[in-house]
Amino acid sequence: MKPLKNLPKKSLVKKDTLEVKYKWLPVVNAEKCDGCGKCVEACGPRCLAIINQLAVLTEAERCGSEEHCIEPCPQKAIRMEWLPWEGDEARGKWQTPNLLAQIISKKEIGYEISN
Ligand code: SF4
Ligand code: SF4
Q: Domains in the chain, please, with CATH?
């Protein structure tokens, strides 16, 4: 699974949590992002912000996982990933590790998960 280094510090998952859940969240490629702000404009819940010319997921808790930020990006700098997360499950798409493994085995998501 991808490292957590791109996530806001406040959202770090407790290491002693027995069953970590995963949320479908946008990840910005800092090499590609030029800070144009089109993803920020496209995000209704205002989850993204431009900080030092880079789009940053500042309010992941409010993210609805509906991917409206992906298509407007001219640099193709945003992708969605299942990331370990804790918080209010009323917003966004969530999976338990077991369900996530089933999804991956069925190849229902379009990217490769690496260790
Ligand atoms: S997935 Fe939706 S709510 Fe989440 S950051 Fe993108 S546009 Fe905003
Ligand atoms: S739309 Fe793409 S290039 Fe522009 S700020 Fe967002 S992630 Fe960066």
A: 19-105 (3.30.70.20)
Ligand 2 residue neighbourhood (C-beta within 6 Å): 28, 33-39, 55, 72-73, 75, 77-78
pLDDT of res. 4: 46
Per-block mean pLDDT, blocks of 10 residues, the chain (115 long):
49 57 97 98 98 97 97 98 93 88 63 43
The vertex-101 CA angle with 115 and 7, nearest 5°, equals: 50
pLDDT given for residue 108 in this prediction: 54
The torsion of the CA quartet 39, 28, 86, 94, rounded to 10 degrees, works out to 70
Ligand 1, residues at Cβ distance < 6 Å = 26, 42-43, 45, 47-48, 63-69
Residue type (1 letter), 52: N
